[in-house]
Design brief:
Strand order of the largest sheet of chain A: 2-3-4-5-6-1-7
InterPro entries (chain B): AAA+_ATPase, Checkpoint_prot_Rad17_Rad24, P-loop_NTPase, RFC_lid
Number of helices of chain A: 14
Strand order of the largest sheet of chain B: 1-3-4-5-2-6
Subunit structure (chain B): Heterotetramer of subunits RFC2, RFC3, RFC4 and RFC5 that can form a complex with RFC1.
Strand content of chain B: under 5%
Helix content of chain A: 40-55%
Radius of gyration of chain B: 30 Å
Strand content of chain A: 5-15%
Organism (chain B): Citrullus colocynthis (colocynth)
Main location (chain B): nucleus
Protein name (chain B): AAA+ ATPase domain-containing protein
Number of helices of chain B: 26
Distance between the termini of chain A: 58 Å
Largest sheet of chain A: 7 strands, mixed
Number of strands of chain A: 7
Number of strands of chain B: 6
Radius of gyration of chain A: 23 Å
Shape of chain B: extended
Oligomer: heterodimer
Order of helices and strands of chain A: HHEHEEEHEHEHEHHHHHHHH
Structural class of chain A: alpha/beta
Structural class of chain B: mainly alpha
């Protein structure tokens, strides 16, 4: 088992990074009055861990008995029925799902499937009907229509079930939903916090940590605890005992994007653009989300760029990122950005060096 | 009686078919109503029916013997009757000109001399040494509709003095009939069975002139004009087997006529089956002669000949227009001609006031011609790839025509020379282009057609394609599929994509041959989707489950780490990767599904 999973805190009490939040949640749950919750924060900050611990706090050990279902739902949408495939993870008391997986049909999930799930509530030992908890991931990736219907669902079934929403950015969740939930902001852990967690794991595993090594990993991790722990483990596999100057293995896809960036800087031509497209395809096949590709690419390009171009390039990156969200096929827009960059950069080169 | 029937043909071939059936032979008394499986066929039926009607009733009686019909084309006799009718054009106004002016000698054929010669020589050889079991007694003739494939065979048969036997396709049985028949105790045999029987008999015994009181020394040519329609692989396999056997063992010189359909026009399986059959026949050792569309000049010659015989005076331009609009289909050209000559004065006068359509630049822009071609022409179609080629090559008029008539003042950098083609929207329409595949194809291929230095162009094009993509997705999901708003949106998106490419690619490469690739994007999407699902599943198994992890997290964080770790868990991941990379022909779950398959196959021929 990976260390990330092995040392994931199981209960609210065990949580160290967001201790205050955990304690507040505990108090909230023990007082039996749990509102809808919206957790938001960057990736690797511990939202999921908190949610799972919270559910365990609410329902005890039964929350651990989960099953995964890949089910096709038949939804009546006016004249026709739509088949929606959705993976859900459920115990008797809670269901977890990612409605945005259904793409533009996400609103049906939000309306129909949640309704169905909310209908059959578990009965507790005293014969009282309990609440069912629905965990929705990636709420910020829901389409606007889906978010609207989610709002309705929340109101209608609030007596049957509680929603726990998770997302990275609350700004993409509509105001209406945010106001109906208790918003819990989960910050990314600070580097000191990451170092402390790493040291804790090191102690448990009986490892010698040279000074400064943990902080180097923390630095590289981009304030994502998950990534820090994963690279800590890879370091352990690569070389032990640790040396404080030891290389921290980079993510392969990040390397790859660095390569693409240097390709772009080297030559600006339609032919090169075509090669770049091939490499981006490679990334997309391996499920690297296009937004992350674009962001990382911009980051790599900016590193090597003359200061006076930075502003312009950032502007276009933002422009094409927006188009990408509006559009359907990410490659069109990533490529448009690369082409734009090439065009800008080439003009710059010509005007500077003639 | 038959004359009346022929009047109906003008209105609807369907009607004629039924009428022709009932009048021509009592054998088909039970099939009162039937649908023609192919329009081509019904015309043929009509032809036959008419010919029969104008002949003596002796042959009519002899026809109802078997399900295939051997008839001795007593061409001399027929020829003479036709001569008579042709001489007095005004009397036989009701006759179809296609039948009236059927070619009866080799000289009359509009088909290229060499082709005719080729076929003739082939038959001559076969007939000279008829009992030579060379196993090569089958000739496959292919070509578009209306180029005179059957006519050539007929003419050659009469030229060689051979008797022409034909496989006469049985009439399809509809369900009600079948019910009626089965209650009456008549067994249903499938058409394919019947064909198989026929072929088997022909293979074993040759043509049995049982019902013909004719000279048995007369050589025989078998003409199979309608291969049975097959649906499904099994039926196709049977037909293939039976034909294969036949090709290898028959002693009778046989011509099999197969009509090509333009592949782009249809995603129909039957067309593909026909092609497979053709291949199979060739593999079995059959000779193949491909007929090309008839040239404009030959069509014009024929039309003028008919005109002079019918004593109509058509302007050169009108003949030109008919020939041009026929697209190499002589039958169609003659039909158009007859229709045109019906009331020439009316059509001309009505069309002169009609608005001018923008077709046919090469023709002198007389209103009559434009209007005319508009009314009677076959709709031109383009293959998707043809259209894409046009867009990507971006042919423009030479520079000196620039600026002369531009009404708007545009910046120098935004000026483009006028396009050397129809408006892009029209081409799209002819190619049945759908916005999504068009955009994908353009995106995949446009970079190949750009100048090496033109990054700015690439940028403009990429941006426009991005716009098209955005347009395509804007209402995705909100509107039903058949909604008008979405249709318009798609049209707009296609237009933006195409015009963006045309505009952006301002320094196109000088035209040389480029392969047009199938968008790799489709494959990427498929395997990406597959990978996503697998990743989540693997992750869940590895973790023992309690929480779903999002694929992006897995892809960006877990997978690279697992790769470094090289643990047993990552072994699974590696396997997974191998698996997906092999799996290149992954089915698309996307909406463009069907499209992708057809074009995939098309591209190999491109």
């Amino acid at each position: 088992m990976l260390w990330v999973d092995k040392y994931r805190p199981k209960t609210l009490d065990q949580i160290t990074v967001h201790q205050d939040v955990a304690q507040n949640l505990k108090k909230l749950v023990t007082e039996q009055d749990c509102p809808h919750l919206l957790f938001y924060g960057p990736s690797g900050s511990g939202k999921k861990t908190l949610v799972m611990a919270l559910i365990r706090q609410m329902f005890g050990a039964s929350a651990d008995k989960v099953k995964v279902e890949n089910k096709t739902w038949k939804v009546d949408a006016g004249a026709r029925t739509i088949d929606i495939e959705l993976t859900t993870l459920s115990s008797t008391n809670h269901v977890e799902l990612t409605p945005s997986d259904a793409g533009f049909q996400d609103r049906y999930i939000v309306q129909e499937i949640i309704k169905e799930m909310a209908k059959n509530r578990p009965i507790d030992s005293k014969g009282k009907r309990g609440h069912k908890v629905l965990v929705l991931n990636d709420v910020d990736k829901l389409s606007r229509e889906a978010q609207h219907s989610l709002r309705r669902t929340m109101e209608k079934y609030s007596s049957y079930c509680r929603l726990i929403l998770c997302c990275n950015s609350s700004s993409r969740v509509t105001e209406a939903i945010r106001s109906r939930c208790l918003n819990v902001r989960i910050n990314g852990p600070t580097e000191e916090q990451i170092v402390r967690v790493l040291e804790f794991i090191g102690k448990k595993e009986g490892l010698q940590l040279p000074s400064g090594f943990a902080s180097r990993i923390a630095e590289k991790s981009n304030r994502s605890l998950r990534r820090a722990i994963l690279s800590f483990e890879t370091c352990r596999v690569q070389q032990y005992p640790f040396v404080s100057t030891q290389a921290i293995p980079p993510m392969d896809w990040e390397e790859y994007i660095t390569e693409i960036a240097s390709d772009i800087m080297k030559e600006q031509s339609p032919k090169r653009l075509f090669q770049v497209r091939g490499k981006i395809y490679e990334l997309l096949v391996n499920c690297i989300p296009p937004e992350i590709i674009l962001k990382r690419l911009l980051y790599e390009l900016l590193k090597k760029l003359d200061a006076e171009l930075k502003h312009d390039v950032c502007h276009w990156a933002a422009y094409y990122e927006h188009r990408m969200r509006l559009g359907q096929k990410a490659i069109f827009h990533i490529e448009a950005f690369v082409a734009k960059f090439m065009s800008i950069y080439k003009t710059f080169l010509i005007s500077t060096f003639g | 009686m038959t004359k009346k029937e022929n009047n109906l043909v003008l209105l609807s071939s369907d009607e004629e078919y039924c009428g022709g059936q009932s009048s021509s032979s009592k054998r088909r008394y039970r099939k009162t109503k039937s649908q023609p499986p192919l329009p081509r066929k019904s015309i043929r039926q009509a032809k036959k029916a008419r010919v029969l009607g104008s002949r003596s009733c002796l042959q009519k009686d002899s026809r109802n013997v078997d399900e295939f019909n051997l008839f001795c084309e007593d061409f001399d006799q027929v020829f003479s009757t036709f001569k008579v009718s042709a001489g007095s054009g005004s009397i036989c106004r009701n006759e179809l000109w296609i039948d009236k002016y059927r070619p009866h000698s080799l000289e009359e054929l509009a088909v290229h001399k060499k082709k005719v010669e080729e076929v003739k020589v082939w038959f001559e050889e076969r007939l000279r040494t008829p009992k030579d079991a060379s196993g090569n007694n089958v000739l496959v003739i292919t070509g578009p509709a209306g180029v005179g494939k059957s006519a050539t065979i007929n003419a050659i048969a009469s030229h060689l003095g051979a008797r022409l036997c034909e496989w006469d396709t049985p009439t399809p049985v509809i369900w009600q009939e079948h019910l009626h028949n089965s209650s009456a105790g008549i067994q249903y045999t499938s058409k394919l069975d019947e064909f198989e029987n026929f072929i088997g008999r022909m293979r074993k015994y040759g043509v049995i002139p049982s019902c013909f009181p004719v000279d048995s020394r007369q050589p025989v040519i078998l003409l199979i004009d309608d291969l049975p329609l097959t649906s499904g692989k099994a039926a196709l396999r049977r037909l293939q087997n039976c034909l294969h056997l036949y090709v290898q063992s028959t002693q009778v010189p046989t011509a099999i006529v197969i009509t090509d359909c333009a592949r782009a026009e249809t995603t129909d399986l039957t067309v593909r089956y026909l092609e497979e059959l053709q291949l199979c026949l060739e593999n079995a050792g059959a000779c193949k002669v491909a007929f090309n569309p008839i040239t404009n000049n030959s069509i014009k010659k024929i039309i003028s000949r008919i005109c002079s015989q019918e004593q109509y005076n058509l302007a050169v331009e009108q003949i030109d227009a008919i020939a041009k609009s026929s697209g190499g289909d002589l039958r169609h050209a003659i039909m158009s001609l007859q229709l045109f000559c019906l009331k020439p004065s009316q059509i001309c006068s009505s069309s002169s006031s009609a608005p001018e359509s923008s077709k046919d630049e090469e023709l002198p822009p007389t209103v009559v011609n434009d209007r005319f071609s508009f009314q009677f022409g076959r709709d031109e179609t383009l293959s998707l790839f043809h259209a894409l080629g046009k867009f990507l090559h971006n042919k423009r008029q030479s520079r000196n025509e620039l600026l002369s008539d531009s009404e708007f003042s545009v910046q120098e950098s935004l000026l483009r020379r006028p396009l050397n083609m129809d408006p892009p929207e029209k081409i799209l329409c002819q190619a049945h282009g759908q916005a999504r595949p068009i955009a994908d194809f353009l995106h995949e291929n446009v970079l190949d057609f750009m100048n090496e230095e033109a990054v700015d162009d690439a940028c403009v094009v990429a941006s426009y394609l991005g716009d098209a993509d955005t347009l395509l997705s804007s209402y995705e999901g909100m509107l039903a599929r058949h909604n008008d708003a979405e249709n318009i949106l798609h049209l707009a998106a296609a237009s933006v994509a195409v015009r963006g490419v045309l505009f952006g690619n301002s320094h196109p490469l000088s035209s040389r041959w480029h392969a047009i690739r199938r968008p790799k994007l489709w494959q990427i999407e498929g395997s990406s989707l597959f990978n996503k699902k697998e990743m989540v599943k693997q992750r869940f198994i590895a973790y023992g489950g309690i929480s779903l992890a999002h694929f992006s997290v897995i892809a960006t964080d877990y997978v690279p780490a697992l790769k470094w770790l090289g643990s047993s868990v990552s072994g699974d991941h590696e396997n997974l990767r191998m698996l997906t990379e092999e799996n290149t022909d992954f089915d698309l779950v996307n909406s463009g599904d069907q499209e992708s398959h057809t074009s995939d196959e098309e591209i190999e021929d491109w």
